Amino acid sequence: MIFIPLWQRLLVALATVAAILLALPNMFYGRVEVANDARASIAQGLTSPELEADAGLWPSWLPSGLINLGLDLRGGAHLLAEVQVSDVYASRMDSLWPVIRDALAADRDTVGFVTREDGPPSELHVRISKPEGAARALEIVRGLARPVASLSGGGSSDIEVRAQNDLLIVNLSEAERAATDDRTVQQALEIVRRRIDEVGTREPTILRQGADRILVQVPGVGSAQEVKDIIGTTAQLTFQPVVQRTSNKDADPGAGNILVPSVDEPGVYYILDRAAVVTGEDLTDAQPTFDQNGRPAVSFRFDPQGARAFGEYTGAHIGEPFAIVLDNEVISAPVIQSAIPGGSGIITGQFTPEESTDLAVLLRAGALPAELTFLEERTIGPELGADSIQAGKNAAYAAAVMVVLFMIASYGVFGAIACVALAINIVMIFASLSLLGATLTLPGIAGIVLTMGQAVDANVLIYERMREELRRGASPVKAVQEGFDKAFSAILDANVTTFIIAAIMFFVGTGTVRGFAVTLAMGVVTTMITGVYVSRVLIALWFARTRPKTIVV
Amino acid sequence: MAWRLRLAPEKTNIDFFRLQWITFGLSAVMMVASIVLIATMGFNFGIDFKGGTTIRTESTAPVDVAAYRDALDGLGLGDVTITEVFDPTFRADQHVAQVRIAAQEGVEAVTPETIATVENALKAIDPAITFPSVESVGPKVSGELVRTAFLSVAGACFGIGLYIWMRFEWQYSLGTVVALIHDVLVTAGVFSLFQLKFDLTIVAALLTILGYSVNDTVVVFDRLRENLLKFKTMPLRDVMNLSVNETLGRTLVTSGTTLLALIPLLIFGGDVIRGFIFAMTFGVFIGTYSSVYVAKNIVLWIGLPRGEQAKKVSSNKFADIDA
User: Which of B4, B163, B276 lies nearest to residue A443, judging by beta carbons?
Assistant: First the structure.
């Protein structure tokens, strides 16, 4: 008899049953998916007879975790965006200017008049009219610096100032840039997530990648362009006073002003005051609507602070035009007819109904802190994915048949036992992938098929050892025990090295390669379990049943 | 005695070192040839590594590559490649082609307008055409991907070397790593020679080959270590031969089952992963070869200190090799 402690036998039996239950939902993928979706809707408070019926498609006491299908299998859009973090430096400088101006104005006797000069966007150039006051001016501006609000930047201040005669040059310190970059990407990630959630696509993947990148994967979308329309727009909305309307695109806007083109009227430009009255950040809500002429428009509502600022400005500037600016383009520039105290209004322009819906979504979700540029975009059609799944399935069946035949031809009963262990192995891979909510990709399917070929390696090592022991004249029981014991070190080494490879692939790889790494790693773990423990229990059971005097491996 | 399929006789006594100068020379020649090929011909990089756009087209009408080319040449997109894709898994009325557009000057990702123009131009010739996949990669990302691909292969070799060093001796580790470099280099050389498309999945395949090859090598080394303790006075070369002979059955059966699993994938797995599967299939051959003919030759070359005999053996280990 081959002695295996009862707890080990029970553990193997338990693990096998658990694996079968966990893997089961994947056999009924479509049905379980519908049921899960219905349950999610019910959990959100929605309910209808159809939803209840859908939820009943899969018994709730069974596990319902599914393997996520990767984009290459399900179809969808994949985008890699880079956040233009340096955009934020310029707006930081813009907001710093009034502060510096006011601080220096308090010491006008020493530094003279201050003016802002043009410089690179990430620097603020300030000229003072009395060069001899430069030292004092430096001191004042340095006094405005604050410590960097981050863990790594402790001790350093947020701005750096240097003086060239009568010119003060202010820029963000290295530490502050790093902290700002991090915040910008976090914010952008949050905004992207909110926008995609607003549109209501299912199971999007939105991840930060590296220092300044965002990876977005949306299954089931027809083209990457649709996703880009939603996440690629900055949606920076501002209400700015109009200084002048012009048709000269090279017009000099003058200090403190900017020149902005009109969206709907080609060749028309507006000179606007750089300082916005209110911005999109003050919005609490935006909805698509229609104006009194029945044209698509977007209605909005300000928060109390925005409502007050807007009310005060409109009250003081009746009869003057103001501009509604979206991403540096004037959507419309109405003339203020009366004070608008309620804090709500509508934006009209030449919108299509789709555009007004999109704009409302964008305004609700908030503006991106910086522009996104797209480095990578992939669209995969659902049919191609379905074809790939079918091809993968066919190949897997063919591979399974071949491996089973080969193993039985090579090792007889023991080969059959190895195949049972292999079947349990495959079930365990699916179970662990479902449990982890891992993503299965086409190379991932290949990884599983490869595992089929390699998983039996553990059994082969053991069986070859058993043969050697038998040749040496060992008894069947002794041969089995020696086979397992002596082969273990080689099996362990072989699997640990494969695991190292899988780990490296997971950390450096992306997308489909990652999917492959996950299945490979899972395969290694389950192979160790089934190859060594499950097959040992199976062999012990076979011995207990047949009590062989001699065995042929 | 029940019948058993045997890929190797029960007991073999092959002298794997008899032809070592030929096999070793062959390996050296293949490695040098691969380096020369890669240096001169380079790779047929996919968009992952070179940037650009690939559009997969599918239609019920046969692909007329010349017509496609005429339609696209006028668009001023620079380098455009059109290849028809054939695959045994396609339906009779399924005609697939791959249109590849080189990365546009100074643009991070191909603009949607470019893709739309291409799609419209193709729709004009064949109204039934659909575009199952459109992928663009900007030059910035592709440059980084080349670097990470290289680093991941190098990192994997290093990680494995470290592990083998921990579990065995540094001599084994060196032998393993040389064998791994051999496998990767020769596989890459084949991709360069036949100008097969080299993309990210091929890197994954290369890494898997590393895993497979090291697997094989470790099994031989494991047996070698065991036999070295058992036969303390037998010359290293003979112990090695014995170890390889003893594990030959397993080596062939495992290669066999792995190939049996891979070949259906190669045939029925579809054209999307064919390159990937091809690399792995090739890797199984080269990995098996290298564990038998490369890794342990390196170890033999360096020599191994052996227990209490370590001193004595190290003084005449070169005699062992010449014997």
Answer: B276
Of B115, B137, B159, the residue that ends a domain is B137
pLDDT above 80: residue B319: no
CB contact under 8 A, B265 and A494: no
B247 part of a folded domain: yes
Select from A378, A502, A552 the Cβ nearest to the Cβ of B135: A378
pLDDT tens string A312-324: 888 888 888 888 8
Nearest-angstrom CA–CA distance, A205 and A219: 9
**B260 shares a domain with B132:** no
Residues A266, A328 within the same domain? yes
pTM of this structure: 0.79
Q: Are residues A508 and A431 in the same domain?
A: yes
For A72-113, give the DSSP string.
HHH-EEEEEEEE-TTHHHHHHHHHHHHHHHHHHHTTHHHH--
| Chain A residue nearest residue B218, CA to CA | A494
User: Which of A155, A176, A197 is where one domain is finished?
Assistant: A176
Chain A nearest C-alpha distance from B254 (Å): 6
Number of helical H runs and strand E runs in chain B:
11, 6
| Residue of chain A whose alpha carbon sits nearest to that of B253 | A460
Residue B265's domain is classified under what CATH number? 1.20.1640.10
The number of distinct structural domains making up chain A is 3
Chain B residue numbers touching A512 (CB-CB < 8 A): 200-201, 204
Q: Which residue has the tokens 């592990």?
A: B163
Angle of helix A511-528 relative to helix A442-471, nearest 10 degrees?
30
Q: Which of A377, A460, A517 sits opposite B254 (nearest CB)?
A: A460
Across the interface, do A517 and B204 touch by the CB < 8 Å criterion?
yes
Tell me if chain B has a CB within 8 Å of the CB of A335. Answer: no
For A206, the 3-state DSSP assignment is: strand
Q: What is the pLDDT of residues A488-522, one digit of tens each?
A: 988 888 888 888 888 887 887 766 677 788 888 88
Nearest partner of B17 among B313, B310, B304, B243, judged by Cα: B243
Residue B279's pLDDT band (cuts 50, 70, 90): very high
Domain count, chain B: 2
Distance between B2 CA and the closest CA of chain A, angstroms:
7
Name the residue with tokens 């008894």.
A475
Distances (CA, A) of B3 to A401, A407, A552: 20, 13, 9
Integer Cα distance of A87 and B14 in angstroms: 70
**Distance in angstroms between the alpha carbons of the first and the last residue of chain A:** 17
Render pLDDT for B160-180 as a digit per residue (tens, 0 to 9): 899 899 988 899 999 999 999
**A391 and B156 in contact by Cβ < 8 A?**
no
Q: What percent of chain B has pLDDT over 90?
A: 20
* Domain extent for B105: 52-137
**Both A412 and A537 in a single domain?**
yes
CATH number, domain containing residue A305: 3.30.1360.200
For helices A476-508 and B200-230, the axis angle rounded to 10 degrees is 140
Establish if B14 belongs to a structural domain. Answer: no
Sorting pLDDT into bands at 50, 70 and 90, what band is B307? Answer: low
Which CATH number does the domain housing residue B91 bear? 3.30.70.2040
Q: What whole-number distance in Å separates Cα of residue A432 and Cα of residue A511?
A: 19
Residue of higher predicted confidence among A93 and B30: B30
A161 & A301 share domain:
no
Q: Write out pLDDT tens, residues A396-429.
A: 888 899 999 999 998 988 999 999 999 999 999 9
Domain that holds residue A280: 236-347
Residue A440 belongs to domain with CATH number: 1.20.1640.10
Which of B120, B137, B154 terminates a domain? The answer is B137
- Summarised one tens digit per residue, pLDDT across range A34-58 is 888 888 888 877 778 888 888 888 8
Task: Give the CA angle between residues A484, A488, A490 to the nearest 5°.
Answer: 130
Task: Please give the ipTM for the structure prediction.
Answer: 0.81
